[in-house]
Write a structure and sequence with these properties.
2 copies of one chain form a homodimer. Chain A has 149 residues and is mainly alpha-helical. Chain A has 6 helices and 2 strands. In chain A, β1 and β2 form a beta hairpin. Chain A starts with a helix and ends with a helix. The first copy, chain A, binds a DNA duplex (30 and 30 nucleotides) through residues 4-6, 28-30, 39, 41-42, 44-45, 47-48, 51, 58-66, 86-87.
Amino acid sequence: MKITTKVELGIVVLTDIALYSENGQVVRSSEIADRQNISHKYLEQILLGLRQGKFVKGQKGIHGGYQLSRPANRILLCDILNALDNNILANTYEADDQQAVDIRTSVNNCLWSNFNSYMRRFTENMTLEDLIKDYKESSGKQKDYMYYI
Amino acid sequence: MKITTKVELGIVVLTDIALYSENGQVVRSSEIADRQNISHKYLEQILLGLRQGKFVKGQKGIHGGYQLSRPANRILLCDILNALDNNILANTYEADDQQAVDIRTSVNNCLWSNFNSYMRRFTENMTLEDLIKDYKESSGKQKDYMYYI
DNA sequence: CACAAATCCTACTATGTCAATATGAATAGC
DNA sequence: GCTATTCATATTGACATAGTAGGATTTGTG
């Protein structure tokens, strides 16, 4: 049970695009690859997923690049997870006979479905906008600190 | 990002052992395999992990079997996860240069560390005892219902 | 002691997923 | 028509998981 690098990088990439397209310009994938130290080819895979998830739209051609396709506060963490990770957790054990509640069914209903809701509560309330704010704050702090050195 | 079957079954097995050893008797692995529809050999793997995690102790010999090695309210979900799953989530990205806070570091600190704490809050508060109670309640309900058919 | 039934231990295999690469097609501007 | 970009698909290698196999060890019992 871990966060895949595709998800991890996907979020970084989204944040990068959001930050570097604030004036309406598009962001080339090669820029992102350089800034974030990601293999360009692998980045294209990630961008494919992000595009299919309707988070970004690409503009082809010589002055092409990427942009968010909706405001950052409408991009939820749960949607990113669903778009970039196949196995987003869902324990779907079904008992053979529905009459008696066996242990496996009970654990499935009581534990894992609660766990799912709990996770959803987090991932549905976290937006890309939050991450951008976090970044701006933390990078701001750091700069202040460095001024005093 | 999914719960491994080893974890899922491990919890079922622990619950089974807890329920069927309430009077102090030990539970044979073949019983468990039958009740829970698990391959006996695979079950032994799971029990190995549970034993190494100090959740159960086995008694060898002809009248051997398994028992919990501590009270069910001292067996935490987080411990089970750690014992049966290698990749319990930990995003440990470290920036190359520590001077500037880059996007990746920021996401790591703000998002994933929060996510970790959030998860820990759940898994540290869920005990095997809770699961047993859940099972007893749900199986009780079911029986009541069936009486009225 | 010998046997039987259980746990315990280690190695192995097959399958699948993930990370990453490779190749090239489609598109848009100059 | 050239170039730089996105878009799409196939492939590879490494690794983890699920499950199997065989046998060693222990313990009670006749």
